[in-house]
Amino acid sequence: MAMQDESNPPTVKSWLLLRPLQVTNSLPLDFCWEFTRRHPYYLQFWEAARRYHEQSTSDPARRAAEQVAVQILGGIGVAASMTPLDPRLGPEMLGLRDLGAAWTGGAVARATHRALAHFLLIALPAAQRSQLGRLFNESAEYDSADMDHMFTLHQRLADMSDVAWDSFPSAPIVSINLEMPQRAITEAIEGLVRQWKDEREIKEHRRRDDKLPEYLAVWDQREGWNEGEYHGSRERTFRQIAQETSNPVQTVISRYRIAFSYLSGHDYTRELWIRLMGPHKLPSYVSGSGLTLRRPWRSPHLRPVTESVLLPGRTEFDGQEFLQLAGVTDSDIALVDLAMDVQTLIAMDRSDDQIIAELELHEEDAKNLVAELRRRHQER
């Protein structure tokens, strides 16, 4: 994509940075939960999503906001069927429907009827969904042991001739003939898995589960995570962590960045840290209540960058009405926008005073924010 003219840089409209499902699925269950409960979206939306599952309300606005919370958590790998847990709880509290707990070793799971129904809703064309729905409705009039009536329904399904009925779902679902030797079954499954991985261009990789505690430990020390919350007073610099753990600073930084990729689903950049963690952490560094709304929406002299490069993971979730239901305010967006501008000018070697002047900020309001972003910038 071509770079835009420097005098008219793009306005970043995206807000949510979602985690691709393959990242969630690549983790063993306990660490899937550990990274998920540290996610700022989880901390912000888990209670509303829990109310959606546990409490009914006659307030349509509240119900809509709760449904949005469920959708946002779905965007970071929390299934809509999961009643979110308190982030202070450990992985031993997960149930069979939570974060794919039914997967054995994170790799294999028996398909539930709910999962099969989801697959059919996704895979079947509208006409076939309608036909199947009529069959289900008619079958409800009879006991499943009523072989005469049920045979008639099965025969009607078998007689449906559209090719969609005999096509294969995109999900890797198989039928297994248990009368065959286990070795034959295993060899057949291995062949299918190789074929499916090749078709999807999924590279085979070694999972280093033994390293995951080290990644989490560095993340927790750097970001101040403790007992289900982030605490600014508990944050440590990379150098402090290196001294306390007797590890090289570059090793600590590498572990932190890997933790960021597991938590966010994206490779670490300073800009993506601002997008993801900024709304949760940066408000405490802004002393003026109206600082972000008083400034120009975007400075006219910043280095342009395409949205596709800056913000992977854009989705239709970024609609204004959706974000309003999620509780994202103009002030929230403006604060992140301001932090992005400050970060860009820091990278251009502007001093704190130059940044404050160029962005037309009040020194007392902005100095703490600029200082914090500079501190983080210099660490990496």
In short:
54% of the residues lie in helices and 1% in strands.
Name its key features.
two-stranded antiparallel ribbon, 380 residues, disordered N terminus, 18 helices, mainly alpha
Task: Describe what you observe in this structure.
By secondary structure, this protein is mainly alpha-helical. The protein has five domains: 1-9 and 274-380, no CATH class; 21-93, no CATH class; 125-167; 176-205; 210-265, no CATH class. The chain has helices at 21-25, 29-37, 40-54, 60-74, 113-123, 126-139, 147-159, 182-199, 212-223, 238-245, 249-264, 270-281, 291-294, 307-310, 320-325, 330-347, 352-358, 363-379, and strands spanning 225-226, 229-230. The chain has a two-stranded antiparallel sheet with strand order 1-2. It is elongated and about 85 Å long. The relative contact order is 0.13. The model is unreliable at 1-13 and 293-314 (pLDDT under 50).
Strand content: under 5%
Largest sheet: 2 strands, antiparallel
Instruction: Bin the helical content.
Output: 40-55%
Rg on CA atoms, Å:
25 Å
Structurally, how many domains make up the residues? 5
Number of helices: 18
Strand order of the largest sheet: 1-2
Topology at a glance:
Blueprint: H1 21-25, H2 29-37, H3 40-54, H4 60-74, H5 113-123, H6 126-139, H7 147-159, H8 182-199, H9 212-223, E1 225-226, E2 229-230, H10 238-245, H11 249-264, H12 270-281, H13 291-294, H14 307-310, H15 320-325, H16 330-347, H17 352-358, H18 363-379
Helix pairs in contact: 3-4, 6-7, 9-11, 10-11, 12-16, 16-18, 17-18
